[in-house]
User: Fold these one by one.
Assistant:
Number 1:
Amino acid sequence: MIIRNKNWLKLLLTLKGSIVPQVWQRVAVAMIFSAIITILYKIGFTSIHQPILVSLIPSVVLGLLLVFRTNTSYDRFWEGRKATGGIIISCRSLSRQIWVNIPEKTPEDTEEKIAVIRLLAGFLIGTKLHLRNESLDLKIRSIISENQYLELKEVNHIPMRIAKWIGDYFRKAYDLNYIDSIQLSTYNQILDSMVKDETACERILNTPIPLAYAIHLKHLLFLYCFALPFQMVAKLSWITILVVGIISFALLGIEAIGLEIENPFGYDPNDLPLDNMCDKLLLELEELLTSDSRKEYLID
């Protein structure tokens, strides 16, 4: 979500993309608990005020844990963005080189070249489907042949099969003397880079934050938020409820942000816009296929 052009007040009041829907119930529970403690203090249970609880969980320790949690999740998000961006860069580079440098001696050559360029977009779409554990959709079906579609339905790793088809095309072009060994090596290196970036996305997806760490952080957040009213009730009285709500919202919100962005390949508002990336790459490749750049290159 691009926010640089949004009105500040509109952004402040926006719920879509924020963590309010995820944390408001937990914040409400903390505030209700604070109200109960405040009522008990008001009716005479003054011993319920326990300032010593301020040292139960040092704020520095909790802050460091939250910072580490958020930084780790953002690193995963940013690595996912770099990996998907790397796939797009490789697809753009390969499509240009295929379209300009590989000759066409028959109409079948032209059809095969167009098909393999569309397969580059299919690789990114297939990566998206693989990361989301989804079956083939109409978009990828529209850019591959019927035989390829039936074959993809039977495989477990869609991007790898598409990468094989692209590699087979390079090998065929080399065997027909359409490209030399240096070009073959260059194209395969770019294809290897695409597979490497796809594997990096898999690594992010299949290596979640350690469960013990996530559970321990939740325990500390629970203890900290529910210890707050015992510390504040004597001095703040009814304001304790509001203060506990604000602090709980801040701490639980940071933890919720880390949880939402640790897997950047889903459908959450803050995940990577994979569908838009696929659409944009496909549009760019279709524009390349209708351009005259190849003719101009051949004339030069």
Note: Confidence is low (pLDDT under 50) at residues 294-300.
Number 2:
Amino acid sequence: MLSMKGRGAARLAAAVVASGLIAAGAIATAGTAVADENTPAQGGATATLGGLKTFDQAVVHGEGGEQRIGAGLFEMSVDNGGTLQTYCIDIHNPTQQQARYQEVPWSASSLHNNTDAGKIRWILQNSYPQVNDLAALATKAGAGNLTEKTAAAGTQVAIWRFSDHVKVDALDPAAEKLADYLEKNAKSVAEPKASLKLDPSAVSGKSGSKLGPVTVHTNADSATVSPAAGAPAGVKVVGKDGKPVTSATDGTQLFFDVPKGAADGSTSLTVQAATKVPVGRAFTGIGQHAKSQTQILAGSSESTVSAAATASWKKQGAIPAITADKNCAKGGVDVTASNKGDEAFRFQLSGKDYEVAPGASKTVTVPVAEDQAYEITIKGAGGFKKTFTGVLDCKTAGSGGAKPTPQPSSPAASVGGSTGGGHGTDLAETGASSSTPMIAGIAVGLVAVGGAAVFFLRKKKTGTQAQ
């Protein structure tokens, strides 16, 4: 298990200030016009992938032959402090260099419809690095002697059998026995809760009232609450009792107290904490790294986690609050509009007109094609506009019966070929394909043309269809 890396109050305070300034910049607008923004983060940890750190070799068996790949633990650096260890749950899709990741629920990842997702979490809880007594683990599995590398490889192989439902074996005999033991004994375990989440992430109402509640959900003992820098004069973040709030625990309800007569406007708050991210939380790529292979958490040091919520208010008329969440089960993005005003909120979304009565809310699922970048804009009266962007990544590269696309960035070689010793840290080592001969041809082409440019022409998989 990763050792604790407490950074203290100074680290967390600095992170809170930085996030508050960012939130303020994203929200500062006049009247009912709301700034465009990316799809709101689910809350929790945001991290940068550092590389495949502890691993050995595995063999993937496919229609095109056998392929040897690296199998083991990745390491991520958490924004504002902390380290994560993760395993891959998308074997046919390579990682991207220095990819950025966000903690998400299973419903927003390839695990959303995987009936074996709970077994993967059991494996994580009952194997390396959560179980770091390798002698005891080897005895249970009848694996002889396990090293950190072979324990990581065996654990990864067992996870792939459930996450991607592929035929894959560990090259090392002890690692293979561990993988078989884990696969045979895995039991379904419930999905872990978020390290930090705010619900809802947007509220609205009339000036002269308390807007909310925004409920804090966290596994941290305590979290810091900070209003956005430059919040309108008189606007405060308060608790149920109306008193200003600077800290919160799990279940705390937060409100935006907007004074009567305040000019129409908006603001935000940020909640941050230092805690361990629960084992089994999924991590998906964000921004330009949205297609980097999905990861699942195996271990966490004390890490900085954060979440934000926004508020908007008016004296009269329609007063909307808009949120957007990826819905992998429906193959799209759920856009929810609530209206706390005294007039109906009318808006256009994807070429259709909608209306939300005062005090009501409406959720519209906008279909989005798998692996395609989307830009969803909601427009309303008075210049109201809000845009959500992102990429829907809900399937593994080999799901749906499609034959995986060759991964030109993968250094993996066919069994019997060179693997470079298996001790490098190339981030693409867990990207795999069953089409070894084709990969060999592409590899030659990469050398001839300079290599890296071809990576960006790769598609995650063939036969992608709109959801």
Note: Residues 123 and 182 are 6 Å apart (CA to CA).
Number 3:
Amino acid sequence: MSFPNGEHPDFVLAPGICGIGSDRDNQIVLSGGGIAAHHARLEVDGRGLTLSVLDPRGHTHLNARPVREKGIVRLGDVLSVDTVQIVVKPERDEVIRTAVPSETPSSADAETRARAIPPKVVLRGVSGAQFGRIVAVRGRLTIGRGSDCDLTLDEPEMSRRHAMIENNGDGIYLRDLGSANGTFVNGVQVRDAVLHPGDQIAFDRNRFLLEAPGLPLRGELAEERSPVHAPAITQTMQAVTLPDPIAGKPKPPPAPVAESAASRNEIWWLIAAAALIGGAIALLLLFGF
């Protein structure tokens, strides 16, 4: 959690509950007449980050929208506690990869390929004048203040041609088009960036959530995925020499037990006895004794 105006040192959220308020028992202690003793709290668990407002009389906003009770917080969100702004961002800016491949040449073939890419990548407005709007990213989407852009954002911090989002089928990339202020991805100011589903992209006051069903999330690599089922073992394992826990010496595997002559004789006696009993029963049935 970063404080752009320096009201508090940056704070790293850990799993559990983080209290925000003016009282000293909070994890984040803030001063100000509009900040309650126990103003709000953030809870980090396996589901993500949740904001709970503890004092409804206080002013609490998430991306400039008032929160009365609860709200879901994502990376890149701006939490306002009275007049104190808090940016929720990754612990390290380096997690946002800024090395993007060279731009796909602008040609008829590239345009044909872009039209063939299904509109499975969209931007969903989560704050600002574009709140609730869904914008499909088919191939290339130019963003800026100019009327010739695919997505026009008439904001003071926007350049005429600000940035471009490219969906070329191999990945999703943010490319700067010579903007004056850059773009924020998950609260980190960048020029170019590799994008992933769930990323929040901020252009001045307009924030968009990138949605791309089926594509891996940030940090979710194929080699990190564990198989759902363990492979079946079909080959026979050889005997392993184990250490003797008492003597500390290798203990050979037990030798197979040889079949004794007495055991073989007992088996033949059982077979003979069963044959005699079977013969006696047959005679009784035949002669009616």
Note: The longest strand covers residues 16-21.
